[in-house]
Design goal:
This protein is about 75% helix and about 5% strand. The chain is mainly alpha-helical. The protein is globular. Strand 2 and strand 3 form a beta hairpin. The strands form two sheets. It has a two-stranded antiparallel ribbon. A two-stranded antiparallel sheet has the order 2-3.
């Protein structure tokens, strides 16, 4: 029983991490029809910025208490700014040229890890997390890592915030309307470009937050972390339905649980194969994903 509880908790924590990455990816693709292969780079930027700040290089930031919260906020802010720069400088001129858009984002996705390796080396760096989050607590006979609860809590906050943004705010409604008929919204005097930049910023913030908290999950950061998580993020987005944040949340939970249980009860490494089989089965039964709708 304790093993099942532990695998469930770690699977939910891993699913929460996948959702933080996939939510921004789903938002950007679903609302803007931009297949952003540089999304993993935004995660890596957020992870390294948080690691840099938590290591004591940023005044007021550190590896414990309020200092760590400040470090995570700094990493998220850096990822958000990077996403805005990416949209303004690279994506916006290529909105009508999807092929060049894909090539450009792939290039950024390859260049950023190489740059991080050149500056800080290719080896993983130990993530300086708070002592309070490195312990465990008891639940039904199992010892659950505390940082899994942090990931789950952050994912729930992001899910609620994104649903409120899309359904209850003016900017969310403007973005959804702009996707359906950009010319009409522009004719009404609304600057759709600013709304699209906002969406990119929100997606980048979610990815950077995933990178910051991913350091807690793995205990380290490395240049290729964003690329490896991006693969599973794409799987989650496809399974959840293109553009559906709620679908991405359901798919992330499923992927995290399947991966953890398969890795434990079968040969090591078969968890990834189990995820691919789950993706194929879902697409055969529901070609549009788990929900097939926006938000």
């Amino acid at each position: 029983m304790s093993t099942v509880v532990l695998l469930t908790a770690t699977g939910l924590g891993l699913g929460a991490l996948y959702f933080l990455v996939a939510s921004g990816l789903s938002l950007i693709f679903g609302l803007m029809d931009v297949l952003n292969f540089a999304h993993g780079a935004l995660l890596s930027i957020g992870a390294y910025a948080t690691w840099w700040a938590a290591s004591g290089h940023l005044p007021g930031a550190g590896s414990g208490g309020a200092g760590f919260v400040w470090a995570v906020a700094f990493g998220t802010a850096v990822g958000t700014v990077a996403a805005m720069v990416l949209e303004l400088a690279l994506i916006r001129p290529l909105y009508e040229r999807p092929r060049e858009q894909v090539l450009a984002t792939v290039g950024v996705g390859l260049a950023v890890p190489a740059l991080l390796s050149a500056v800080w080396g290719a080896d993983a760096r130990t993530f300086p997390g708070p002592t309070a989050l490195s312990g465990t607590f008891g639940l039904l006979g199992a010892r659950i890592p505390v940082n899994r609860l942090v990931l789950i809590g952050a994912a729930l906050v992001v899910l609620v915030a994104l649903r409120l943004f899309l359904g209850r705010t003016r900017h969310g409604l403007v973005v959804r309307a702009g996707v359906e008929d950009r010319a009409m919204v522009t004719a009404l005097g609304i600057d759709v470009r600013r709304a699209f930049t906002l969406v990119f910023a929100i997606g980048g913030a979610a990815a950077a937050l995933g990178g910051a908290l991913g350091g807690l999950y793995y205990g380290s950061v490395d240049p290729g972390q964003g690329t490896s998580l991006l693969i599973f993020a794409f799987v989650v987005v496809v399974m959840g339905g293109m553009g559906s944040v709620s679908g991405a949340a359901l798919a992330a939970v499923g992927v995290g649980l399947v991966q953890q249980f398969a890795n434990y009860y079968t040969a090591s490494g078969l968890g990834d194969l189990a995820v691919v089989v789950l993706l194929a089965a879902l697409l055969l039964l529901r070609p549009h994903g788990a929900t097939g709708r926006l938000a």
